[in-house]
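Researcher: Next sequence.
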Amino acid sequence: MVLGTAGAEPANHPMAEAMLPDFNSFVMMRVEGSTAISVDQAAGALKDFDVIFVGELHDHIANHLAEMALLRAIQKRVPHLALSMEQFERDRQATLDDYLAGKIGEETLTDGLGWRNYAQAYRPLIEYAKEHQLPVIAANAPQKIVRCVAREGVKFLSTLPADKRKLVAAMLHTEDGVYKKKFLKFMEEDAAHGGSKGDKEKAADRIEKSFAAQVARDDTMAESIANFLQTHPGYKIMHVTGSFHAEEGLGTVERLKMRLPNLKVGLILPVGVKPGEAAQVKLSDAKGADFAILLRPEPEPYITGSERKAAEDRQAARFRSTASNTCRS
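Model: Next structure:
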């Protein structure tokens, strides 16, 4: 029984009874009480929030099925709903608006978008928004600018002309705190493969700049949401983003509350449950979420150390190949 797709029927079953039969299945769970609920039941509670963050695993089909079901159910209950997306960057807002207005085709919309899974993952959301005339916010900072911040740090932003600078949030919060500590730990663990003292010093500098790039995304998405709410009174927003940007109420969530502290913000996050296990989730697994989307875990990306090393080498080569002269027009 896949309770997440069961519509409006009651689903007040303990999580021990809620199973995930295959990779395309999902179960919605109210974290408080660890209770499985239907998507419609979740939407009934979520309609009272000003902003609903839906964290995702970008390549997980069940996560995207859950997002579509949530958008449909929430929109039926919220007269003025906007969709905000990490996947669209601020410099594409006019193109996105033209597509929603029927002025251009999908090929023009997605040209250069950078999300290879657009058709499977994000087309359903955009087409629903288009059909139901929902505003869609191109919330993110442009990838090219973020990449240059990762190479040069926040100082790069001061080199941008005014029309480019406004594509990134006016204020970036790079200060020390729980989010920075979490990000640095993640990056250090990912890069912990030995090396000389000099290599480690270079790695530390690179990680600091990587955090600045991460924050450029978080603060820009938060500012985009805040700006829309301030210019569209009465609207509520569903924001789709990678789960790291929202876990524990940090990242974009934290930065939105810095800008609009009185907002009521709801958080939905994916939680992996291994095949054959009862879908029982501890509060710590939910990472601060109000609701969880229970999913089968994604496959392991690497089994052997040599696989991981080869992938890291390819990534480093791609970084070097685009490094020279790409941050100066």
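Model: The chain has a mean pLDDT of 89. DSSP finds 13 helices and nine strands in the chain.
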